[in-house]
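Worked Example 4.2. Consider the chain below.
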Amino acid sequence: MSILEFEKPIFEIESKINELVDLGSGKNIVLAPEVKKLKEKLEKMKEEIYNNLTVWQRVQIARHSDRPYTLDYIRMMMTDFVELHGDRQFADDLALIAGFAKLDGRKVMVMGHQKGRDTKENIRRNFGCAHPEGYRKAMRLMQLAEKFSLPVITFIDTPGAYPGVGAEERGQAQAIASNLRDMSGLRTPMIATLIGEGGSGGALGIGITDKVCILQHAYYSVISPEGCASILWRNSVKAPEAAEALKITSEHLLKFGIVDDVIPEPLGGCHREPETVALNLKKVLLRYIKELSALSQEELLENRYNKFRKIGAFIEEK
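Applying the procedure from the previous section yields the following structure tokens:
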């Protein structure tokens, strides 16, 4: 398991506990009292550290390499997943996967950004940064879901859309803009969940939905903290300050009305108890699907339009 800098004291105590347990079991030595004291100390330390995280530390948890990705949630929550490929114009984008699945027996269209677990897979998945063909594939399959009246479920986890020359030549900005336009008019229930990083247009490209959920330590931002720091201070080292200023945590987003629901995570992040988090998320998704399916198509579109129109604040001067 990867260890973040602020987590090192926790893992040091966990290592000591494991050593004592191994020592006691191997030589029939009674070390239960010492192990109990260390476990009590460990629990107190976890609560102290994880209940007082800075915004930057939460960003690090959102990027944790052990955190569940889209395919993990599909495996834990759904059955009968059939992946579909290609935008019918250029290629298949492995950074954004999509397909049919069943959620508690109900057919849905599911899609989301997919990162890799090692360097080789990350290169193959382009670190979760989708190309224009990924967004075009997503839109093609959302329209297919609309045709068959299937709910659309999206998982957002990307630092941003891929900014490379090739992607720009193939119309990255237009692909995302087209998705924003077309998603607003799809006549089928849609739910997005931020499971890790939610960076800029790369996240919005599959995020214009009726309901937007977020895991407790995920974040949603117009720009990464590093990118913001580079622009404002010409120094990415100031990313922790930028993270604080951007107001990107789940609590901020809920307060501002940008997200509709926050799914709690266990101490340390959802990679500590992924099955529990997946079960809680599944309950929320099923609740929203039931709620949205009861609406007429006209009500669905009107509510979605109003949801995004009211985000933000401005002052008119006469």
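The chain has two domains: 5-52, 59-309. The chain has a mean pLDDT of 92. Compare this with Example 4.1 before moving on.
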